[in-house]
Amino acid sequence: MIPEIECTPLTEATYFIMLSLSHEPRHGYAIMKYVETLSEDRVILSTGTLYGALKRLLKQGWIKRVEEGPETQNLEESGRNRKSYTLTTFGRRILETEISRLQVLVDAAHLRTTGAQA
Asked: Is 100 exposed, middle or buried (0-12, 13-18, 19+ CB in 10 A)?
């Protein structure tokens, strides 16, 4: 059974973290760098903020850890596997719902600022 989608708007950091995982799994540092790029350097995540958010998203079932095969294994300098994350089906639905919500806001603003009637 898929839980109901939460209607609360996502924080900007959560939105960009989830957006960074929308096409492929990424490990923590790659998420941090991609969020900076996507947000045009407006959102700079500290490691504490990122890993706190990832822990919360894992607990909510919006993302999951993924194992990488030996041919694509991502090792840290210490030789340990990096933890990579990807959106779950439920997380993808949450992200799509948020994108739709934001689009409605942008459309309303565009109508208002161009003088068009709704």
From this structure: exposed
